[in-house]
Amino acid sequence: MSQSSYKILFLCTGNSARSIMAEALLNKLGAGRFRAYSAGREPRGELHPRALQFLQQNHCAIDGLYSKSWDEFLDPQAPVMDMVILVCENLLTSSCPVWPGHPRIVRWGFPDPVLKIGTDEEISKAFLDVFQQIRQRVELLVSLPQIELEHLGQES
Questions:
Q1: Kind plus residue range of the DSSP H or E element containing 72
Q2: What does the DSSP 8-state code read for residue 32?
Q3: CATH of the domain at 40
Q4: Per-residue pLDDT band at 156 (split at 50, 70, 90)
Q5: Any catalytic annotation for residue 60?
Q6: pLDDT (tens digit, 9 = 90+) per residue, 9-33?
Q7: 12 an active-site residue?
Q8: Is the separation of the CB atoms in 15 and 39 below 8 Å?
Q9: Is residue 32 a part of any domain in this protein?
Q10: pLDDT, tens digit (0-9, with 9 covering 90-100), for 89-115
Q11: Of these residues, 8, 12, 24, 114, which one is catalytic?
């Protein structure tokens, strides 16, 4: 991973909320140093409005974001990732394909706010909680010094 821009792929099941929020946050907070992407095993085909709401409220670009299959990143023309981060609690590393370039696989695992049942206020709180957790992890990632990033890219 010794380069100027680290390519990170965030994965979840539906690619409608958690991975989308992580992609947009890393592209904002790690601009120039990181390039984030997202995808899902079974993409829902649309972005959750609350995920977009939180991104917009936090001044993250949402243009170009869309729900997509991880198959797009298996294509020979796709960018080769340095790291794949699983943001889904139930997505197992063993269920993921073998990625070109053999990137480091990291598990963050957040609850899916899309599945939250309750009042409008309870659902918004679930999205806010997950958004804040993702933001905290992304902030830690972008704060890592170059040498630590290079170490993260090495297989152990």
A1: none
A2: T
A3: 3.40.50.2300
A4: very low
A5: no
A6: 999 989 999 999 999 999 999 988 9
A7: yes
A8: yes
A9: yes
A10: 776 666 778 888 889 899 998 999 999
A11: 12
